[in-house]
Design brief:
single chain, alpha/beta, 12 helices, Dihydrodipicolinate synthase family protein, Aldolase_TIM, 4-hydroxy-tetrahydrodipicolinate synthase activity, DapA-like
Length: 310
């Protein structure tokens, strides 16, 4: 598989990690999940992210999941692997393992201990040194990392750290950040890198309009992400918004802290993608009232999709 580059675009779906009802890895569901995302039109996959429950996996389990996904994709889709870790040694070890298995690149979020612009830059310079020629995605998700990265700091990283080839943009609100970065690269002040956006796709149409290249996020209906990106690329923004609007109520529900991932896994299990909606402990589960909410949203979504002929 070719390595990740600054030209990456489309939809890199953040994959869940399937577990059996007793919390063991469900590798058979991994195969079905990969097939499902590919058939839905995903450009690539991102595994072992926060919503892939990566912190709950052992090092060996992380290797097993990466190996299984990469074997199933068999080079057809680029795979980015989350390798964020408290220390650079563990990050380097997992990166070397997954790149050896055929991954296209890795994703690194900043640790919460970073407080200043200089500390943030120094951290990613150290990451690049530790990872060698492995291309990496800078995950900018201050809502969970508590690290705010200003556009000028991202620009410095882009200009001085060659192996940073993508920004996973999850600032919120953050549309102005995308605009600032694109103006900088358009003016020739910075290298143009790929920008893919997260947050469950809640702002995807607006993010693409500001210059994002697509999405790197999860949603139990990846068809929405693919449809919005496809229609924008084809010059049909109104159609993109129609598709987005039809799925928005469920996407909004799925973005709740805690219960959101349980909602995503519930729907994926209902769709036959994974065998069980189980989250590894500690993890939330849907209450009967939550389940009723989701079922109501699914029914309304089905009706709306029929109305707009999707």
């Amino acid at each position: 598989m070719s390595k990740l580059t600054e030209d990456a675009k489309g939809v890199y779906v953040i994959a869940v990690t399937p577990f059996t009802e007793n919390g063991a890895l469900d590798l058979e569901s991994v195969d079905r999940m990969v097939d499902f995302y590919e058939e839905a039109g995903a450009t690539g996959l991102t595994i072992l992210g926060q919503l892939g429950e990566a912190p709950k996996l052992t090092a060996e389990e992380s290797r097993l999941v990466a190996e299984r996904v990469l074997k199933r994709t068999d080079g057809r889709l680029p795979v980015v692997v989350g390798v964020s870790a408290p220390g650079l040694a563990a990050m380097r070890e997992l990166s070397e393992t997954v790149m050896g298995l055929g991954a296209a690149g890795v994703m690194v979020a900043p640790p919460w201990t970073l407080k200043t612009d200089d500390q943030i830059f120094a951290y990613y310079a150290n990451v690049a040194e530790a990872l060698g020629d492995t291309p990496f995605v800078l995950q900018d998700y201050p809502l969970t990392t508590n690290v705010t990265i200003a556009p000028k700091v991202i620009e410095r990283i882009i200009n001085e750290v060659e192996t940073c080839v993508m920004l996973k943009h999850e600032d919120w609100p953050g549309l102005s950040k995308i605009g600032a970065l694109r103006r900088s690269s358009d003016a020739g002040n910075t290298r143009r890198i790929s920008i893919l956006c997260g947050n469950g796709g809640l702002f995807l149409p607006e993010e693409i309009a500001r210059g994002a290249d697509g999405a790197m996020t999860g949603f139990c209906y990846p068809e929405m992400l693919v449809g919005v990106v496809r229609e924008y690329a084809a010059g049909n923004p109104e159609r993109a918004h129609d598709i987005f609007d039809a799925y928005l109520p469920l996407a909004r529900y799925e973005q709740q802290q805690g219960v959101g991932l349980a909602c995503r896994k519930y729907v994926l299990a209902k769709r036959g993608v994974i065998a069980s909606p189980t989250l590894r402990k500690p993890g939330a589960a849907l209450s009967p009232e939550d389940t009723a909410d989701v079922e109501r949203l699914l029914a309304r979504q089905t009706r709306r999709l029929s109305e707009i002929a999707v």
